[in-house]
Amino acid sequence: MATKSLLQAIGEGLAEEMRSDESVMILGEDVGRAGGVFRVTQGLQDEFGGGRVLDAPLAESLIVGAAIGLSVNGMRPVAEIQFGDFITPAFDQIVNEAARFHYRSNGAWSCPITIRAPYGAVHGGGLYHSQSIEAWFCNTPGLKVVAPTYPADAKGMLKSAIRDPNPVLFLEHKRTYRLLKEDVPDEDYEVPIGEARVHRIGDDITVVSYGFMLHTVLEVAEGLSEAHGVEAEVVEPRTLYPLDRETILRSAKKTGKFLVVVEANLTGSVAGEISAVVAREAFEWLDAPVMRLGAPDVPAAPFARPMMDAFVPDAAKIERAMLELARY
Q1: Which of 92, 220, 241, 251 sits 20 to 30 Å CA-CA off 143?
Q2: Structural domain boundaries in the chain
Q3: Does residue 98 surpass a pLDDT of 90?
Q4: Measured CA distances, 66 to 28, 31, 69 (Å)
Q5: Mean per-residue pLDDT over the chain, rounded
Q6: Per-residue confidence band for 246, with pLDDT thresholds at 50, 70 and 90
Q7: Residue 250 has pLDDT above 90, yes or no
Q8: Which cofactors go with this protein (predicted)?
Q9: What are phi and psi of 127, to 5 degrees?
Q10: Residues with catalytic annotation?
């Protein structure tokens, strides 16, 4: 076991899967010689060659379409979308083709592709490098959507995604690539898709979050415990579709107070689905209205740093929301 960043853990997971299974390959923009724009795939083309780490044209529909074709011919491709913002040209291939292969063939066909996409706001990213895209795809049965935050989980869930017989959208918050580090097991392991993780035990309120917001929520939760005696239970879905309803509901019923914190525009976000599940299935256990916190409904993350800071929920906003809920 060694301490690794999220970026390193994902790169290591890719390398291990390629060594153990010759059908695993990578394709995407600049994934080969350049090692990817974030250097996740650095060194993989040197080890596995240009036939298995393939630089693709700037055409996301081609990248995913080729991955689908490869998958039905015995390969397990990992398609990288350089930034999640650029995934829209491949939307048709993902939603109308890959996600429906198993269903439309009555289980006769499978489509074992993994689509990696960095998402989330970063300073200087502006309109086309800072979007949260998860809600677009969480209304697509046949497609699994995962968004692990911490390195050990990411490596294990990437292995599960690659080994899954059907398509998985694997989201990586770019702001956490080098920020988050932890011990990552050296041995082969999987983290199951569809299981949430309880990061912090508490009895006063439940907070559900993921991505960079989860990192901030955990910091705020520790501060509230020390300053106000409020003990928050913090739950990370890890898989956004399908949700681990049981773990989320168990926590909501225990604390009776529930908050979802996301970075995405609030209207139509994953936070709404999670809140609806709790409001419907844990209503009799609740002592306060279900609360949500997210970005305002503006078209995209602003480029100017002060406006960007106002766009993304920060520690102060999260603390106010948690205290409001605790005092309700």
Answers
A1: 251
A2: 2-184, 197-327
A3: yes
A4: 10, 15, 5
A5: 97
A6: very high
A7: yes
A8: thiamine diphosphate
A9: -70, -30
A10: 129
Position of tokens 């390629």? Answer: 18
The residues that bridge with 115 in the sheet, in sequence order, are: 79, 169
**CA dist., res. 2 & res. 8, Å (int):** 11
Q: What is the pLDDT of residues 113-166, one digit of tens each?
A: 999 999 999 988 888 999 999 999 999 999 999 999 999 999 999 999 999 999
Q: Phi and psi dihedrals of 25, rounded to 5?
A: -145, 165
Q: 2-184 with 197-327: one CATH topology?
A: yes
Q: 281-286 contacts: CB < 8 A, separation 24 or more?
A: 281/245, 281/249, 282/249, 282/252, 282/253, 282/258, 285/252, 285/253, 285/256, 286/252, 286/256, 286/257, 286/258
> For helices 151-163 and 6-20, what crossing angle results, to 10°?
30
Sequence-distant (≥ 6) Cβ neighbours of residue 133 within 8 angstroms: 84, 85, 87, 117, 119, 171
Dist CA 186 CA 205 (whole Å): 35
CATH fold of 197-327: Rossmann fold (3.40.50)
CATH placement of domain 2-184:
3.40.50.970
Would the pLDDT of 1 be above 90? no
CA 10 to chain centre: 13
For residues 263-268, average pLDDT: 96
CA distance between the termini of the chain: 44
Nearest CA-CA partner of 149 in 80, 265, 38, 238:
238
pLDDT 10s digits, 287-301 = 999 999 999 999 988
- State residue 300's pLDDT score: 87
